[in-house]
Amino acid sequence: EIVMTQSPATLSVSPGERATLSCRASQSVSSNLAWYQQKPGQAPRLLIYGASTRATGFPARFSGSGSGTDFTLTISSLQSEDFAVYYCQQYNNWPSFGGGTKVEIK
Amino acid sequence: QLQLQESGPGLVKPSETLSLTCTLSGGSISSSSYYWGWIRQPPGKGLEWIGTVYYTGDIYCNPSLKSRVTISVDTSKDQFSLELTSVTAADTAVYYCARTESGRYSWFDPWGQGTLVTVSS
Questions:
Q1: Does the N terminus or the C terminus of chain B have fewer Cβ atoms within 10 A?
Q2: Which residues does B20 contact at the CB level (< 8 Å), separation at least 6?
């Protein structure tokens, strides 16, 4: 099993500031990494796939980077609608998810 | 635009079998391009992949759940189903169905809205 570890568990950020979320895999997953955004009471929504390709409907302030074992999701200037929980998921082998990072208003 | 909708009992007794169905609208389950998956989320916790099925009936399951999971496809109804046997309170979760792209192990998009299943006597 590939274990995905996300940090921090909670990130307190002011609107307009930059947010940097980390995801680490227990072994290399190449670029087979996705990110999801989940708001309360809603299903997760695909945000990034292939480590850096933005899904339809998400603005350019969201960007993904990394390969191998270390990945980063950056939100360049947080808007009110971006406060949510973010999950990473590897699909290099059978899928596994990280524990999530909650981005909250500071 | 493809939409998925989960359906099934919201309450299951311990040791019994959880059965859910995912119905597609706006798309065909028989598309050779896609696989179809189940993911669950215990209340207040993270996501866990349960398994993935292809329209041919080929199944790929989480090894930790494999002995209790059956996933099937009904191409005539554009549906796929999940059965989880011998449930306990630890199986209480929101269950999501989703489409996977780019092979059996891939990202999930889109997702159904999810259905809460509570295991309790």
A1: N
A2: B6, B7, B8, B38, B81, B82, B95, B97, B115, B117
Tokens of B78: 């554009």
B105 → closest Cβ in A44, A91, A97: A91
For B6-47, what is each residue's pLDDT tens digit?
999 999 999 999 999 999 999 999 988 999 999 999 999 999
From the CA of B119, how many Å to the nearest CA of chain A? 20
Q: Output the pLDDT for position B32.
A: 87
Span A71-92, pLDDT tens digits: 999 999 999 999 999 999 999 9
Residues in contact with A53: Cβ distance below 8 Å, sequence separation at least 6, in sequence order: A64
- Reference B98, options B118, B82, B76; nearest CA is B82
Return the structure tokens found at B101: 């792209």
Token couple for A97: 């998810």
Q: What is the structure's pLDDT at B101?
A: 84
Q: What are the Cα distances from residue A102, in Å, to A69, A70, A105, A106?
A: 21, 19, 10, 12
Q: Which residues of B touch A34 (CB under 8 A)?
A: 107-108
Please give, rounded to a whole number of angstroms, the shortest distance from the CA of B30 to a CA of chain A: 22
Query: Residue B59: which of B23, B100, B104, B19 has the closest Cα?
Result: B104
Distance between CA atoms of residues B4 and A37, nearest Å:
18
User: DSSP class of residue B105?
Assistant: S
